[in-house]
Design goal:
This protein is mainly beta. It is built from 1 helix and 12 strands, in the order αββββββββββββ. The radius of gyration is 21 Å and the shape is globular.
Length: about 190
């Protein structure tokens, strides 16, 4: 029977061997030409546990668009014990704003969300067409269905978090954009629907 000293010496070798086998197995899975679905990547710029406010980002997606504006959506999950406020979002293809939908002059319009997007402790916030969303203001190149974009969220306490979202076609949510904030989002109208 091996001594506890022998077991301690072998533990790193066993762990490295296991990791190597898993890496080879994973590499082999994608080479057969099969279509696989990638899980969106979520990373935090600082090492923090959910209790310190890092958000989970579930089912993120971006509305495909050729030009102008578009938006990013998904579900933000706060498993921590304190509220988290997103104050800024950024991506490489466009300046961004945090937006909300609100009633103005009898119609629903988009406008910048004052105070940021708050995700309450131990709850979720949904970014969706017709509700709060991350607005890409003037895309520098077309965002085609299947494209993967990287986003960085900045929180009120200065921390940042990145995630990726895949673009997909979407024709709903014909909202109006509040006057003075640019052109309508593709698929959106500046006048009320009849």
């Amino acid at each position: 029977m091996p001594s506890s000293t022998d077991v301690r010496r072998l533990r790193p070798v066993i762990l490295l061997s296991t990791a190597a086998v898993l890496a080879v197995a994973a590499a082999g899975c994608g080479s057969s030409g099969e279509v696989t679905t990638a899980t969106p990547k979520v990373t935090a710029a600082t090492s923090a546990s959910p209790a310190t406010g890092v958000l989970g980002v579930r089912d993120p997606w971006v509305k495909a668009a050729d030009k102008g504006m578009t938006a990013a959506f998904g579900t933000l999950v706060n498993d921590g014990d304190t509220d988290v406020t997103i104050t800024k979002a950024a991506t490489e293809v466009s300046p961004m704003e945090l937006h909300e939908m609100t009633m103005k002059d009898g119609k629903m319009v988009m406008q910048p969300k004052q105070g940021g997007i708050v995700v309450k402790a131990r709850s979720r916030a949904t970014l969706e067409p017709g509700g709060d969303h991350l607005m890409l203001m003037n895309i520098s190149k077309p965002v085609r269905a299947g494209d993967e974009l990287s986003f960085t969220l900045t929180f009120a306490d200065g921390r940042t978090q990145t995630f990726s979202a895949v673009a997909k076609p979407f024709t709903g949510a014909q909202e109006s954009y509040a006057p003075g904030h640019g052109e309508p989002m593709p698929g959106m109208s500046t006048t009320p629907a009849a």
